[in-house]
UniProtKB/TrEMBL annotation:
This is Enoyl-CoA hydratase. Its main location: other. GO terms for biological process: fatty acid beta-oxidation. GO terms for molecular function: isomerase activity. One of its GO terms (cellular component) is cytoplasm. Keywords: Acetylation, Fatty acid metabolism, Isomerase, Lipid metabolism, Peroxisome. Pathway: Lipid metabolism; fatty acid beta-oxidation. Gene3D superfamilies: 2-enoyl-CoA Hydratase, Chain A, domain 1, Lyase 2-enoyl-coa Hydratase, Chain A, domain 2. It is found in: Peroxisome.
Length: 280
């Protein structure tokens, strides 16, 4: 894997572990972060044997969210000139930021996030785009943008209502208040809460190992169908499921599963083909 400024990457036993590595800066999401994250996840999908991604962090906080320097750089967001052109440019910047986090949904691998301390602003946008969320007892979440005088614009307001009750989302968005790990679990935002980060990471890695042990074709089919069903009607989703199954289902992996059960062994599934660029 490439070297990154904002995180480290380790791939062991089909599990890609992406770790935010700027604890002194509270793992804020600076310009490099927004550029590197989609490249990193696409690279894992395209050029490794990983079957699941775990995202964790270092230091006291998972991430303090957006580094406001992203918006104070005149090369990124011009502060003078024609108002219409300035507005069009800002819209493009926001769309690029949104796209950086949408990659968590778009890659075919499940993405699990392990959260300690603060998960603030843009960091909440990020974990909402993940497949599963796990937290330590000291974790807390906040839609910080409201308190700063702006509307959250990178995904929380669009994804969080699909994860927890819309009325609760409205309260959290309008007030910008903190909610802790216990409340997040009660609301259904996080799957499990653990006493400390070490325990959390150990348990999340066990879950990742269970995912990696399954047929990667079956798992990617689950992610594709769940994401599609979230955004479409039941009937449309059933129709898409039938089409997917007719094209993707093959008995090979099922036979490997049956044979492994019969011999009390672990099935050995083939990896998915790499996702290579069209032209190299």
């Amino acid at each position: 894997m490439s070297d990154y400024q904002c995180f480290t990457v380790e791939i062991i036993d089909h599990i890609a572990h992406v770790t935010f590595s700027r604890p002194e800066q509270l793992n804020t999401m600076n310009k490099a972060f927004w550029l590197e994250l989609p490249l990193c996840l696409r690279d894992i999908e395209a050029s490794s044997n990983a079957r699941v991604v775990v995202i964790s962090s270092t230091g006291k906080h998972f991430s303090a969210g957006m580094d406001l320097a992203v918006f104070s750089d005149p090369k990124t967001v011009p502060m003078t000139g024609d108002p219409g052109r300035m507005a069009e440019n800002l819209r493009r910047v926001v769309l690029q930021l949104q796209s950086s986090l949408s990659v968590l949904e778009e890659i075919r691998l499940p993405v699990l996030t392990a959260i300690q301390g603060g998960c603030i602003g843009g960091a909440l946008d990020l974990v909402c785009a993940a497949d599963c969320r796990y937290a330590t007892e000291d974790a807390y979440f906040t839609i910080k943008e409201t308190e700063l005088g702006m509307t959250a614009d990178v995904g929380t307001l669009q994804r969080l209502p699909k994860l927890i009750a819309p009325g609760v989302v409205r309260e959290l968005a309008y007030t910008g208040r903190k909610f802790d790990a216990a409340e997040a679990q009660q609301l259904g935002l996080v799957n499990q809460v653990f006493a400390d980060q070490e325990t959390m990471l150990a348990e999340v890695m066990k879950i990742a190992a269970q995912i990696a042990a399954n047929s990667p074709l079956a798992v990617t089919g689950c992610k594709e169908m769940l994401n599609y069903s979230r955004d479409h009607s039941v009937q449309d989703s059933l129709t898409y499921m039938a089409t997917w199954q007719s094209g993707m289902f093959r008995p090979t992996d099922m036979m490997k599963s049956f044979q492994a059960k019969a011999t009390k062994s672990s099935p050995e599934y083939d990896d998915l083909f790499d996702v290579k660029p069209l032209f190299e």
